[in-house]
Amino acid sequence: MKTIAVTGGGGKLGSQVISKLQQQGYDVVSLDNHLSDRIHCRQIKVDLNDFGQVVGALAGVDAVIHLAAIPAPIHFPHTYIFANNTLAGYHVLEAASLLGIQKVVMGSSESSYGFAWAPQPFSPDYFPVDEGHPQQPQECYGLSKVVNELTAEMFHRRTGMQVISLRYSMIVGPGEYRHMATAKPETFKQILWSYIDIRDAVDASLAALHTDYAGAIHLNITGNDTLSEWKTQKLLETFYPGVNDLRLPFHNREAIVSNSLAQKVLDWRPKHSWSDAELE
């Protein structure tokens, strides 16, 4: 691989993914609906809802990291969010199949499980939540991620394309930790106190690009600990007392969204924690 396309290259994660790819010697092209002055690579303004534009923009690239999306079920009508995210994902995969691109990394989300944005909050079936847990979104954003993952599976069946979908937790930069209410555990209950340092999210994205995996797979990309000062067992007893199916013991501040499959498949390990931020 020599040339990598990154959709959403001007975004929070995309811009840092591009920087790391360039450090590793790749030629990078950013596909976004705006030009950004914080990235220094070839940029193409693209409406990902226009299939012709997507095909033209991806011509000549060897692999794609698809990160462009409306990132939450807010600020736009729900129908637009769902249509935008699913159509963009389909267009990227369809264009890749036509152009003979056999490796795509898809930005998915832990929101696909449904807990984060649920109008009617509900509890997980068990802890830790792994990739086998049912996805039960109640809103357009989480549903769009489920559809994109199913679309990825379809393209693998049809073309043999390798598609690794990364279910990122809430992505947090080092400078944001000081604003996090880690002493108030109720703040992050609905996201299961789950987060991923942006540096670890970048590393996971590149690890997925480098991994040879014969299929379509979906992986949780989350940190090793919780975004709370409380120990995990206390969090569960206080906020999720009805969940009795605990599949691992919790002694300290272990994450309750599992990243073990991502560690195995990608040979990747999170290196950063909010609790270390003051030392960095």
Description of the structure:
It holds the Pfam family Epimerase. This is NAD(P)-dependent oxidoreductase. It comes from Paenibacillus agri. The protein is an alpha/beta fold and 280 residues long. It contains 7 helices and 9 strands; from the N terminus they run βαββαβαβαβββαβαα. The chain has a single domain (3-279), classed as NAD(P)-binding Rossmann-like Domain (Rossmann fold), CATH 3.40.50. The strands form 2 sheets. Strands 3-2-1-4-5-6-9 form a 7-stranded parallel sheet, with helices on both faces. The protein has a two-stranded parallel sheet with strand order 7-8.
| Helix-strand topology string | EHEEHEHEHEEEHEHH
Helix content: 25-40%
* CATH-assigned fold name: Rossmann fold
How many domains? The number is 1
- What's the total helix number? 7
Question: Would you count the extended β strands for me?
Answer: 9
Average pLDDT value? 96
CATH class: Alpha Beta
Question: Which descriptor suits the 3D outline?
Answer: globular
CATH architecture: 3-Layer(aba) Sandwich
Radius of gyration: 18 Å
Tell me the fraction of residues in β-strands, as a range: 15-25%
Tell me the CATH superfamily: NAD(P)-binding Rossmann-like Domain
Identify low-pLDDT runs. none
How would a textbook summarize the main sheet?
A: 7 strands, parallel
Strand order of the largest sheet: 3-2-1-4-5-6-9
Structural class computed from helices and strand pairing: alpha/beta
